[in-house]
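Why do we bother with holo predictions? Because pocket geometry can differ from the apo form. Keep that in mind while you read this record for protoporphyrin IX containing FE.
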Amino acid sequence: MEFVSMFCLFAFISCSLLLLHSIFNLFAFGIKKLPLPPGTLGRPYIGETFQLYSQNPSVFFASKVKKYGSIFKTHILGCPCVMISSPEAAKLVLVTKAHLFKPTFPASKERMLGKQAIFFHQGDYHAKLRKLVLRAFMPESIKNIVSDIESIAKSSLESLEGRLINTYQEMKTYTFNVALLSIFGKDDMLYREDLKRCYYILETGYNSMPINLPGTLFHKSMKARKELANILAKIISVRRETKQNHTDLLGSFMGDQADLSDEQIADNIIGVIFAARDTTASVLTWILKYIGENPTVLQAVTEEQEGIMREKEENGEGQVLTWPDTKKMPMTTRVIQETLRAASILSFTFREAVEDVEFEGYLIPKGWKVLPLFRNIHHSPDNFPEPEKFDPSRFEVSPKPNTFIPFGNGVHSCPGNELAKLEILILVHHLTTKYRWSMMGPHNGIQYGPFALPQNGLPIMLSHKTSS
Ligand code: HEM
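The structure, written out:
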């Protein structure tokens, strides 16, 4: 009797498994039968890389969208890709079906930033890191560093007076110093120059061929990375000895609950500098260009910022900016939003399908890259009328859902967005109340490397308003 019931149970389980397997096959076959999205894959291996990178990417995307619609396939950098340019589809990839699309980067980037950096992960480890990063960059934490950021902004601008400068390069110095402040508090002072020297060598290798042989840029870059990790290890060990509590990013990474190794901390610190510096510096460069070209917008921003100074003076609050002051800058905030939209410095981001996915009636095969096109979403007349016009007043009303995503969306969206906006507001406050600037040479071109930037980094002459 016992044998019979065992047999029945075994038969039942086998049949169920078989049935499940058939259903799965049917389903998988069903997906496999779906068509690939429209588009062309170009030549073997090189695909359409040349067409994308040899021109303004907007032209490439616009011609494809016109021909194939908001979802199309192509082949770039050795990978088959699906590009998507509707807000709804971007939300599906980044939020609703985020588990089916993992972040993906070239292996050389992973080696340079460090395998354990937040960008490359999903699941529990990613969630833990994200909590630690958000803790350091949420308003409650960055409120405390407003006056320190202000000191950096003031001395940066003072150092630029009366010189012909490359705006982007100088803004990179500013955003680098703010990044170090937010990561180490004031602990990095001793090591600042060494950190800077190593990081600057490291970044020269970001877009180089990943050939690790003596003499190559990549090799120099990897050496600098090692040195950087050694400096970070020293800063960490000094902190361990002093046992003080810190509210900066390193403090968050070293907290009791964090349970991160020194290597994990180093990878993530290098990663955050990478994410924080060039992005924010590009946006600042675009702001100087846009408001420099739009006198009425510049006047409105200047009046708003002067109003804040006047009000502080009348209330006997002194000249030092506070967190509440930065919340009284609606016009400047709209200028930042419009700059993020118009410049769309990150034209797109990369994901990879972790399995065959059915997407809007098409098959996205496992392993294919999927690129939500931020720039197209921000420049579609359906989402923003007259998209090529710089018009901060369009942000007097909220944009339609999922149409304004300069900081991404979903589990990997930018945890540093509050800090980025804060450091931009503070620099613009001092820039517009104390300085004037003129753009030198042609400034209508755009270069992409990898962020969209005004041609030649926007050369300008900056002078104090009180000087003749
Ligand atoms: C205006 C400046 C900035 C822009 C436009 C920007 C934009 C973005 C975008 C679009 C993403 C998501 C990428 C994706 O989904 O693949 C992202 C991620 C990230 N950003 Fe930013 N960012 C800026 C500044 C900053 C700053 C100042 C920090 C740090 C202080 C920072 C730290 C990060 C980190 C750590 C991630 C990865 C998050 C994750 O994978 O969970 N960013 N950023």
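The first helix runs from residue 2 to 33.
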